[in-house]
Amino acid sequence: SSHFYKILEHLKACRKALTADQLRAETGVDIYAENLEEGLKENPKITCDKNTFAYKSTYDLSGKEALLAEIERTPEGIPETVLRDSYD
Predict the structure, then answer these.
(1) Is the dihedral of CA 29, 30, 35, 41 positive or negative?
(2) What is the Cα–Cα distance from 11 to 46, expressed in whole angstroms?
(3) What is the pTM of this model?
(4) 2-14 and 20-27 are packed helices; what angle lies between their axes, rounded to 10 degrees?
(5) What's 83's DSSP letter?
């Protein structure tokens, strides 16, 4: 649904864990009213703990050093789409 996509894109853009209340305040989408909670928990691109949801990128690249290390570990190369997904 468009609300699910909105939540996913928001989590990807902000790159931090948010509670359902924070998601509602920042996106206008109530994950409970829209019955999105289970779908978010089952989505491989989202990590969930007790009360928060966060975007899970393919690689955890937090800076230039992490990016260079990953490139060195991957001699066959990393697709640009994966890099864009993983790097702020």
Answers:
(1) positive
(2) 8
(3) 0.77
(4) 100
(5) H
